[in-house]
Amino acid sequence: xxxxxxxxxxxxxxxxxxxxxxxxxxxxxxxxxxxxxxxxxxxxxxxxxxxxxxxxxxxxxxxxxxxxxxxxxxxxxxxxxxxxxxxxxxxxxxxxxxxxxxxxxxxxxxxxxxxxxxxxxxxxxxxxxxxxxxxxxxxxxxxxxxxxxxxxxxx
Length: 155
Fold this sequence. Notes:
Elements: H1 6-32, H2 37-41, H3 46-55, H4 65-81, H5 85-98, H6 103-115, H7 119-154
Helix pairs in contact: 1-7, 3-4, 4-5, 5-6, 6-7
């Protein structure tokens, strides 16, 4: 087993710690939306349909870009969970190509790259995913603050 240079090891460590922080934010974000959970259980929900279509053995190519992204993302998750890192890389690379501003797809691609011992690629994707998630969080915080101020003015 070859050793990584100190600079690369440091960047991988920073990226991993950043991912842990992003993971905590995602868990919190998911718990905030717990009241919406029943929506995902309905069979006519578009994301669930796309996921089921992507995972079925006779899957037809999705027509819309959002459907193609969801199908690729779900294929990546299924392949990663099945310990097939090569298929997971292909699927997540397609998802990133279809939605380059999706933080979750970039983070998952970075994690697969780490599993395949491709530290430079992993660092690039993990840093991009963390940056996108940070920007999204800041944007939503600013919007929440603006709504709060607007509500105060109306009262």
